[in-house]
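The data layer described in this paper is built around a simple, fixed record for each protein. Because each token names a local backbone shape, the row as a whole describes the fold. We quote a single record here, exactly as it is kept in our systems:

***
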Amino acid sequence: QVQVVESGGGFVQPGGSLRLSCAASGFTFNRYSMSWHRRAPGKERELVALISSTGGITNYADSVKGRFTISRDNAKNTVYLQMNSLKVEDTAVYYCNARGSGDYWGQGTQVTVSS
């Protein structure tokens, strides 16, 4: 059974940091590219960051470049999103996606940035 489970969301003040984790199981993790997406209230879902199956290639949305870092640990079947210098506009539900021979999504984790 495929599972993609996000964790690490929460409430943080502007300028703060959070680290999201996404634990995967039920598929060959090291053959899948992984990505983080987010959906803010009233907006469409957008790609935040992507990492290749080996971790050698990463891409970021312009809005998060220099602030967010995506990484993965293939031994632990986990992908991370380190978020620094958080802004109010980063408030959203963050989703983890696994894409390879299948396409799997987690249930999302809420990130709220507010003073």
